[in-house]
Amino acid sequence: MAKDRKIDVVILGLLAHENLTGYDIKKQIDGAISFFWKGSFGSIYPALNDMEKQGLVKRKKTDTAGGREKIVYQITKKGKDTLKVWLNEEKATNDLKYETLLKLYFGGTEDRSVTVHNIEIFEEQVRGNLEVLKLYKENLERVLDQEDHIHYYLTVTFGIETYEAYLRWCSKAKKILKEK
Amino acid sequence: MAKDRKIDVVILGLLAHENLTGYDIKKQIDGAISFFWKGSFGSIYPALNDMEKQGLVKRKKTDTAGGREKIVYQITKKGKDTLKVWLNEEKATNDLKYETLLKLYFGGTEDRSVTVHNIEIFEEQVRGNLEVLKLYKENLERVLDQEDHIHYYLTVTFGIETYEAYLRWCSKAKKILKEK
DNA sequence: ATCAGCATGTAAGGCGTTACATGATTCA
DNA sequence: TGAATCATGTAACGCCTTACATGCTGAT
After folding, report:
1. Tens digits of per-residue pLDDT, A118-139?
2. Cα(B79)–Cα(A38) distance, integer angstroms
3. What is the rounded distance in angstroms from the CA atom of residue B180 to the CA atom of residue B177?
4. Which residue from B149, B45, B147, B94 is spatially nearest to A129, judged by alpha carbons?
5. Mean pLDDT of all residues belonging to chain A
6. Using alpha carbons only, what angle is made at residue B14 by residues B136 and B33, rounded to the nearest 5 degrees?
7. DSSP code of A20?
């Protein structure tokens, strides 16, 4: 596995659950995972090829029935071991880049209304995301007894808890900016 | 300004407040800003040189008194305009990469205790960060009447609000993982 | 007929980190 | 004397995104 390329463990994690094509992997990343990690085709396909060479994944079969070829990947024993090592490593880097907070921090040179407006834009995004997460939560609650689902459920509640905190902060911040 | 290089606006934002050297800029980024943005010498110095060529900043003076040369930068009119445009742009991308959540999401293949342990590591980091932010908050509350400080204050309260939400989630998540 | 979705991949280029190089000053 | 801090910068390298290339299938 490449030293700092986290897309590898994302792929491994997904394949540990079921066999998937590169295209399927992209769809999964664009789902619930997108709230805390992103990935593009341009990183997924090269990673799959590298990982195959390293014996972390293997081609299950190549459906050429019909149109374009379709390569289904399966995780190998070595791949499962790599995933296990990563899960048991204590270090985890959480790299956050909030351009919204940057604009807030440096907003002192502009009128207060600019900052308030930027907060409102952020608020709208968060509100939208929160709605989506609440739907995910409802769906997951119905199948919580199934293995793995508790992990998905917890990432969703993490998102809900933090987005609700964001919204509380937005209200307070707007109030302070308008009052003082 | 480079199209997607956000370090430029960080530098511009800092210089809008006071003249600084590249070294000073790095120190500031490593302070309160580090909770929502990062930057290394390897990105700061080349950016300063580019921005000087573009007329966004200029060398105020070069102190060669004593040891190593010391280049103090000042923002120009063009730099202020660029900052203004950025602050008024509606789009702001908040790019989050939580390796902790990745481990949580894919934790289903390991024992529950591994996930609990990973949450505990995260919890400790957050607790440490929260303490630091609370100190920042206390110091800022004493000077809230000064211009700019309200913006710094709000980013700090954002951090506190979200870190407290993280801690609440950690307690709940550990409980659920131990009970079920 | 045309557009969206399925499906895999490459190429160019940007951004950023880490490590290195250099050297003075200050403090223990 | 040696370590930490001040101070600027480069080089190598890696990761990732965007855009492009290709072409089928199914629905409107």
Report:
1. 999 999 999 999 999 999 999 9
2. 32
3. 6
4. B94
5. 95
6. 35
7. B
Helix/strand/coil for A66: coil
Give the start-end residues of each E strand in chain A. 57-63, 70-75, 94-98
Tokens of A43: 């990183």
A67: the nucleotide nearest its CA (via C1') is D24
Helix axes A22-29, A41-53, angle to 10 degrees: 130
Chain A interface includes B129 (CB < 8 A): no
Beta strands at A94-98 and B70-75: parallel, antiparallel or unpaired: unpaired
Tens of pLDDT, residue by residue over A18-30, are 999 999 999 999 9
Query: A53-92 as b/e, with b when 16 or more CB fall inside 10 Å?
Result: eeebbeeeeeeeeeeeeebbbebbeebeebbeebbeeeeb
Pure H helices in A30-148: 41-53, 77-88, 99-105, 112-141
The radius of gyration of chain A from alpha carbons, rounded to an integer in Å, stands at 21
Structure confidence at residue B66 as a pLDDT band (50, 70, 90): low
The CA distance from B175 to B169, in Å, is: 10
| Window 45-74 of chain A: CB closer than 7 A to strand C | 45-46, 48-49, 67-72
Amino acid letter, A37: W
Backbone angles phi, psi at B148, to 5 degrees: 80, -35
Is the Cβ pair B169, A162 closer than 8 Å?
yes
